[in-house]
Amino acid sequence: MSQYDRFVYYESYVRIQKYINLGNWEKYFSSKEAFHNKIISPVVELMNGTEEGDTTVVSDAYLKLMDWQYDYVQEHKAAFDFITGKDYIENGGSKADLKQEQKDKEAKRKAEINELQEAKKAADISDDTSEKRGLVIIPLILVLGCGILLICQKFKHDK
Q1: Interval 38-51: pLDDT, tens
Q2: Host domain of residue 46
């Protein structure tokens, strides 16, 4: 296998499967845009920076190949190996950890909740807890005041 063949094999299969195995599905495979930005764009920039003549011929072919690979990954949750004609799972690899995808979604949901709470604080929106505290404190003060009055009256009667 030539150096170029190894490079294409790594970038079109090994690297894609590596990102699948990382388990952060939302970050790398949630959309074609995320896939392009996080995985493909560094390779395309490298290709466009080293070609002579028409600088986009090879990178355009690579992008078409990666678009196909993205669609395959979405359907099978594994990268397709163009040399063997089988995907990662058919070659004996394990299926992607979709539980991690659920964990990622849960973490994203928690982050959104935190952002909303911070926005409420920034906008000075209360959760009505101050009103609830007032409803508890007023009876407490009344009970304590009555207790103190009773104690004072008892001392006056004892003298």
Answers
A1: 888 888 888 777 65
A2: 3-96
What are the φ/ψ torsions at residue 96 (nearest 5 degrees)? -60, 145
- 4-39 confidence digits (pLDDT tens): 888 888 888 888 888 888 877 788 888 889 888 888
Position 60: which residue type? D
- Give the span between the Cα atoms of 75 and 126, in whole angstroms: 46
79, 96, 113: which is the final residue of a domain? 96
Tokens representing 153 are 């009256």
Q: 3-state DSSP call for residue 88?
A: coil
* Tally of residues, the chain: 159
Q: Would you give the end-to-end CA distance of the chain in angstroms?
A: 108
- Asked if residue 111 is part of any domain, the answer here is no
Block residue for tokens 């190949």? 65
Looking at the fold, whether 77 and 141 belong to one and the same domain comes out as: no
- Overall number of domains in the chain: 2
Helices (H), 53-128: 57-76, 98-122
User: Could you tell me if residue 10 is inside a domain?
Assistant: yes
